[in-house]
Write a structure and sequence with these properties.
Elements lengths: L20 H7 L7 E6 L2 E6 H15 L6 H15 L1
Antiparallel strand pairs: 1-2
């Protein structure tokens, strides 16, 4: 079954899947490149490591106050610890 913006490929006996060239190019994939696979809701998502880092950064940014820099907070904590010693 094919969907819009999709292609059909097969899995070989070794479990390998051929990713068409235009998809590899769009993801910046070259031989030896690290990629991330994510299984979610019965779908396999594939993306490059740079995309994974960006997603992680976005997630972290939603969990910290926007006005607070984590480096500044860490420096303050270290200075408090140093004074106690």
């Amino acid at each position: 079954m094919a969907f819009a913006n999709s292609v059909t490929t097969t899995v070989d006996m070794a479990g390998r899947i051929v990713i068409p060239q235009k998809y590899r190019e769009a993801l910046g994939m070259r031989p030896g490149a690290e990629i991330v696979l994510k299984l979610e809701d019965g779908e396999l998502r594939l993306f490059n490591l740079r995309h994974a880092w960006r997603q992680a950064q976005k997630y972290v940014c939603t969990r910290i106050p926007t006005k607070e820099r984590l480096a500044d907070e860490l420096i303050r904590e270290r200075r408090k610890e140093a004074k106690r010693e």
